[in-house]
Amino acid sequence: MRNSFKKTAAVLAAVGSLSLGGASLASAATADTLTVPDVTGYSAPAAVRVLEDAGFTNVVVSGPYAHDWDTTVTRTSLAASTTAAETQPITVFVDPW
């Protein structure tokens, strides 16, 4: 009877440790996520700047008008207000492209 008590206590201690460690890992995974700002209607250069200022490091513009101030952003590959890792690629789609 005494051995089964020790085994039960050991199992409970291990499960508790895993639970606490799992919570820490879950927190760490969400700590590096950022919210995608809404850049619809911005020019391509302004949208890139806003996304980079928000912390995203992998922003590209579709088409040859990446530096043209006469463009209008129609959408991004990640929807506004969603969360993503800072290294997640975000494509900015513009009109007239």
UniProtKB/TrEMBL annotation:
Q: Report what the protein is called.
A: PASTA domain-containing protein
Keyword annotations from UniProtKB, A to Z: Signal
Task: Report the coiled-coil segments.
Answer: none
Signal peptide: which range, if any? 1-28
Looking up InterPro entries in the UniProt record yields: PASTA_dom
Q: Which Gene3D superfamilies match?
A: 3.30.10.20
Q: Does the keyword Transmembrane helix apply?
A: no
Q: Where is the PASTA domain?
A: 30-96
* Naturally occurring in which organism (per UniProt): Rhodococcoides kyotonense
Which CDD domains does the protein's record reference?
A: PASTA_pknB
